[in-house]
Amino acid sequence: MSKDNSDNFNGILKSVEEKNDKNELGKYLMSKLSNEQSDKLNKILHDDKALKDLLSTDKAKEILKKLTGEKDGQH
Length: 75
What we know:
By secondary structure, the protein is mostly helical. Helix content is 75%, strand content 0%. It is built from 5 helices and no strands. The protein is globular, with a radius of gyration of 13 Å. The two termini are 26 Å apart.
């Protein structure tokens, strides 16, 4: 990941951590995506197999750990 993408990603993660309302969070995240990206994400979220495949990736696990504050399997 380039430095610009990394900085942008970290900024989004910080914003996500600060949002308590799930609806507000969903709207915020979707606003950061293009229409094409938003459509793709919605398709994945409504496809159980695609969602499971996505969440099983190393990158998704890394993101979830950052969002939950989990370190080495510990909260």
